[in-house]
């Protein structure tokens, strides 16, 4: 990437203080932008955990890449310089041991933690975790993270930025469980703050690459596409220091939970509902035109009563802003992208709402409609992109009625847990909703 004067990054740090695991589009559109805008010299070493594609694209550009924002007005683009190194997963442990590194952050998606969403524990039957614990050079995210932490003495912060409930405590528990199973002691002080992250980042298309080139005057094969909106709420526990993210617009707080629950249940829950009810649409903006009413009902009648809204927070305005963001046609957010990995997403996005409403004596019809739509997706999707795809397809094989499909999938307690499996109210609502969907009903 040859930079013109109009496309230079705001800051190019001279050293690395953050190692980031999972340097995909979301990190580059979100945390890396906040880090550059903080302007206090914190460089990032980005490490891919699976495909080497991002490393192959960024390395020849010295880590530089562009962020293309699509909103109501003309698109804009800027070059980001916060990423100073790009490595592949094998380098994870060694890079974490560097005492100059103060923060290890993660965006590896829900499935990257190889845990049971219903219990928050590592999957006992996961062969990759077992092989890591048996002594091979680790290949799992938790294995690589622990290997790196075990090799350092200086304090460090592990900062999870994935959509997990209480994500800091969840990752702490997974690290502790891995250490216990492997007889590993961590010699360094480690904090695990929780975070809430929010910025929509659809997959980049060839058209996006061309538009960024037109705006910047340079060709960048690592363009990230996103919306103007961005939010980051962080629990402020950093024993080795942190960038001035608050000066870049992040909210530093002592309690992330209320923000996290709002985002997971209102934005992510609605996204999943759109993805499974709107499986016939290509883009979210098309689906929301037809499904706006059930999404509003879900937000108002099921999700909102389960929230602890922070003082002074305008919940009605927040929900309206979500609907506006979903309707942004310039973003071209694909429905299929959201539908991926449903078994990992449902517990955080929808099943928590179901549990809370059932506990309050209510019937969460709209949340159940979304879960029933996922069950139909499992049964009928031509391609099921999910880490539990084989198990789920086997469970519904031969199920020829709504009752049989519901019972088969509720028996997957890694997703639903025994409590929802055994809930008569939940089961009956699911059967009713799945039968309506299977009959082709579109009036919600």
Account of the 3D structure:
This protein has 444 residues and is α/β, with parallel strands linked by helices. It has 2 domains: 249 residues, NAD(P)-binding Rossmann-like Domain (Rossmann fold); 182 residues, N-(1-d-carboxylethyl)-l-norvaline Dehydrogenase, domain 2 (Orthogonal Bundle). Helices cover 45% and strands 13% of the residues. It contains 18 helices and 14 strands. The strands form 4 sheets. Strands 5-2-1-6-9-10 form a 6-stranded parallel beta sheet. The protein has a 3-stranded mixed beta sheet with strand order 4-3-12, with helices on both faces. A 3-stranded mixed beta sheet has the order 11-13-14, with helices on one face. A hairpin with a 4-residue loop joins strand 7 and strand 8. The mean pLDDT is 95.
Strand fraction = 5-15%
Kindly state the mean pLDDT as a whole number?
95
- Enumerate how many helices there are, as a single number: 18
Alpha-carbon distance between the two ends = 50 Å
Work out the number of β strands.
Answer: 14
The CATH superfamily of the largest domain bears the name: NAD(P)-binding Rossmann-like Domain
In short:
The chain has 444 residues and is α/β, with parallel strands linked by helices. 45% of the residues lie in helices and 13% in strands.
Comma- or semicolon-separated keywords:
single chain, 444 residues, alpha/beta, Rossmann fold, N-(1-d-carboxylethyl)-l-norvaline Dehydrogenase, domain 2, 2 domains, 6-stranded parallel beta sheet, 45% helix, globular
Blueprint of the fold:
Layout (H helix, E strand, L loop, with lengths): L15 E6 L3 H5 L1 H8 L4 E5 L5 H6 L6 E5 L6 E5 L2 E5 L4 H5 L6 E4 L8 E2 L4 E2 L4 H7 L7 H10 L5 E5 L6 H16 L7 E2 L3 E4 L7 H11 L7 E3 L4 E5 L15 E3 L3 H21 L6 H20 L11 H12 L8 H5 L2 H18 L5 H16 L8 H8 L5 H9 L2 H9 L2 H15 L6
Parallel strand pairs: 1-2, 1-6, 2-5, 3-12, 6-9, 9-10, 13-14
Antiparallel strand pairs: 3-4, 7-8, 11-13
């Amino acid at each position: 990437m040859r930079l013109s004067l109009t496309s230079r990054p705001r800051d190019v740090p001279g050293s690395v203080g953050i190692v980031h695991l999972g340097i995909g589009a979301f990190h580059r559109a979100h945390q890396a932008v906040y880090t550059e805008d903080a302007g206090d010299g914190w460089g990032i070493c980005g490490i891919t955990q699976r495909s080497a594609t991002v490393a192959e694209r960024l390395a020849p550009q010295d880590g530089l890449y562009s962020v293309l924002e699509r909103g109501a007005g003309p698109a804009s683009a800027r070059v980001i310089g916060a990423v100073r190194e790009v490595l592949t997963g094998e380098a994870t442990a060694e890079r974490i041991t560097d005492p100059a590194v103060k923060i290890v952050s993660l965006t590896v998606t829900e499935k990257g933690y190889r845990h049971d969403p219903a219990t928050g524990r590592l999957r006992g039957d996961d062969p990759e975790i077992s092989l890591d614990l048996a002594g091979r050079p680790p290949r799992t995210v938790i294995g690589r993270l622990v290997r790196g932490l075990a090799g350092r003495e200086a304090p460090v912060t592990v900062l999870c930025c994935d959509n997990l409930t209480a994500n800091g405590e969840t990752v702490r528990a997974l690290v502790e469980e891995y250490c216990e199973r492997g007889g590993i002691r961590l010699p360094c002080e480690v904090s695990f703050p929780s975070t809430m992250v929010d910025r929509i980042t659809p997959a980049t298309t060839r058209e996006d690459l061309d538009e960024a080139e037109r705006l910047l005057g340079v060709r960048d094969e690592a363009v990230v596409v996103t919306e103007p909106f961005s939010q980051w709420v962080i629990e402020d526990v950093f024993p080795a220091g942190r960038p001035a993210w608050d000066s870049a617009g992040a909210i530093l707080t002592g309690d992330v939970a209320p923000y996290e629950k709002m985002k997971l249940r209102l934005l992510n829950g609605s996204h999943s509902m759109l993805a499974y009810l709107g499986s016939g649409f290509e883009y979210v903006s098309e689906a929301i035109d037809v499904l706006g009413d059930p999404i509003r009902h879900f937000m108002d009648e099921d999700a909102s009563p389960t929230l602890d809204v922070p003082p002074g927070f305008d919940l009605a305005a927040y929900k309206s802003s979500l609907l506006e963001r979903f309707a942004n046609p310039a973003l071209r957010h694909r429905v299929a992208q959201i539908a991926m990995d449903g078994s990992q997403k449902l517990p955080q996005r929808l099943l928590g709402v179901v549990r809370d409403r059932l506990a309050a004596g209510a019937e969460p019809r709209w949340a159940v409609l979304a879960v029933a739509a996922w069950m139909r997706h499992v049964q009928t999707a031509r391609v099921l992109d999910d880490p539990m795809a084989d198990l789920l397809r086997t469970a519904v094989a031969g199920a020829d009625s709504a009752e049989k499909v519901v019972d088969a999938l509720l028996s997957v307690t890694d997703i639903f847990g025994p409590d929802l499996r055994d809930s008569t109210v939940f089961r009956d609502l699911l059967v009713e909703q799945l039968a309506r969907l299977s009959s082709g009903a579109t009036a919600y």
